[in-house]
Predict the structure.
Amino acid sequence: MVLLHNLSIVQHQHERQGPIVRISPYELHINDPEYYDELYVGSTRRSEEYPWTTKQFGPRTSVFATTAHELHRIRRAALAPFFSMQSVQRLEPSVQPVIDKLISRLQELQGSGKVVNMLREQVIGVKKDLADGKRPTSQMKKNVFHDMIPNPAVRPEEKTTDHLVLEAVSVIAAGMNTTAFCLATITYYLLQNPEKLERLQSELAGIAGVNEGKPGWQTIEKLPYLGADALAYCELYLTLFAVFCPSGGNGGKGFEFELLETGEKDVVIARDFFNAVPNLDSKGIRIVVK
């Protein structure tokens, strides 16, 4: 993994030296899509996480910070059931209040001329609200720890308060930045390519009347332009429908956006700080809600 490296410099190395280059005394960078399945083999081959990278996640008790192969499998198994299709379907009602709050914020900005750093800070802020317990009481759902603690298949070591706190921080962090970055990037390319935005909006308009204007993510994913199976996609699809449906995905008037002083330099990955980031002088993907 490239850490704190300027990716344009690494790309120049590849151009001069080939698909595998050394970027530090301890790291190699591979630029070869055909090698992906050889490198990322899942549980089919014993492999250890790189300790230097995992230490950024704090004490080595969370899944993300666990380096030993066997121990990582044990800890991952305790969380895996909560990312299954069945669990995603159960969690969908708790995702909708996040979408509703995002739409409410955009409605407040509509026609104001104010600049929105789209959708990155918007989504991160909403998810932090939920993580802090700021959600309607009627939407309260049991979380993964309600199932883990009484589960006899989960070891006592994975039930301690310290361990569960670390896992909670890891899961929240992983869900915030990845989804926000993806939504922001999708928004930019849709606004830069009107024909693609028009195609998406046409498909979304076709299901706008489902479930009183709030179709489930499994309905949205069947659209020709979309399709995948994961919790992140549940969040992505529900948000894309609510934000870009021309008739207003949340029962109101649809939004019209305009990019403001935003180009590919604000989207293309330039550095790897574990999370992918654009050029350091970027002000983000900025829009005006018209």
Summary: The radius of gyration is 21 Å. Residues 119-123, 136-140 have pLDDT under 50 and may be disordered. The chain is about 45% helix and 10% strand.
